[in-house]
Write a structure and sequence with these properties.
Helix content: 10-25%
CATH superfamily of the largest domain: Pseudouridine synthase
Radius of gyration: 22 Å
Number of domains: 3
CATH architecture of the largest domain: 2-Layer Sandwich
Distance between the termini: 35 Å
Number of helices: 7
CATH topology of the largest domain: Pseudouridine synthase
Oligomer: single chain
Largest sheet: 11 strands, mixed
Strand content: 25-35%
Length: 288
């Protein structure tokens, strides 16, 4: 089941046009059948016809994801699996969990379809960031892994292609981040401000191309905030190539890049406290 809230664009418009616009792969016949079966609700009231909808209405749609989105041709690359955890390589252009900006199938949905409803993600990546995502296969493992992430006992490493060449080959940078939920943007400050949270990002230069003024960085997150790597690197003059929010549009167009060149390539299980059924993961490194 999917729930949608009617925005201003569809105020005083018809239900069918709203749903078909939101789910491009949904066939009209499927929608008509759902209406006949009263599988659609407006503000928790079942409807059987193409009614007019209004700003703020809640639309509940009881149509399977496969019919709403069609079959996704995504090859789920399993990097590591045992009885407790699953590590998947997430491609670009898919969200780990539901994203209010998009109405499409998520990586978590695909994983649950294949491995069962008990499998849950332990962290997230931006929609257009590729890389390793760790899932727990049971409640005990999930509780432990969420605690390990909270205590920074699981380290995440990324590779980022950036515009510019850093003066220092290795640096731990600190700043403060403010998240603007309405604009889906974050802002960085070098000094503390009200509403800003401290962030720490570490980078190491892997290689640089002087002719094109680009570099590849190995990035380690010490704190994990929304868009942290993208915004923090842009703030110090090293925007990620292809990043439409924090990058340089002229450079991105010149290089033909539409999504950020950022990928999570390594997880390190740096456990320093008891880990229960996951003690065997202590010191383990999973990478691509």
């Amino acid at each position: 089941m999917r729930k949608l809230i009617v925005n201003e664009k569809y105020n005083n418009k018809k239900l069918n046009s709203f749903i078909l616009d939101k789910f491009k792969n949904l066939k009209q016949n499927t929608l008509y059948k759902a209406l006949r079966k009263k599988d659609i609700k407006i503000n928790n009231v079942r409807v059987s016809e193409n009614k007019t909808i209004y700003l703020g209405d809640e639309i509940s749609i009881y149509i399977s994801d496969e019919l709403l989105f069609g079959k996704l041709n995504i090859d789920l690359k399993i990097i590591f699996e045992d009885n407790n955890i699953l590590v998947i390589f997430k491609p670009k252009n898919i969200s780990v969990t539901e994203d209010s900006s998009y109405n499409d199938k998520t990586l978590s949905t695909l994983i649950k379809e294949k491995f069962g409803n008990n499998v849950e993600p332990c962290h997230r990546l931006d929609r257009n960031t590729s890389g390793l995502v760790l899932f727990a296969k049971n409640e005990v493992a999930l509780k432990i892994l969420l605690e390990k992430f909270k205590n920074k006992e699981i380290e995440k490493y990324y590779k980022a292609s950036v515009y510019g060449i850093p003066k220092e080959k290795h640096k731990i940078i600190k700043a403060y981040l403010f998240k603007d939920n309405k604009k889906s943007l974050v802002y960085i400050s070098d000094t503390p401000k009200k509403g800003y949270i401290e962030i720490i990002t570490e980078y190491t230069l892997i290689s640089s191309d002087v002719q094109n003024n680009t570099s590849i960085l190995d990035v380690k997150l010490h704190t994990g905030r929304t868009h942290q790597i993208r915004a923090h690197l842009a703030h110090i003059g090293l925007p990620i190539l292809g990043d439409g929010k924090y990058g340089i549009n002229e450079i991105n167009k010149k290089l033909g890049l539409k999504t950020q060149e950022l990928s999570s390539y390594k997880l390190v299980f740096n456990f320093n406290t008891d880990s229960g059924i996951l003690n065997y993961l202590k010191g383990k490194i999973i990478k691509i």
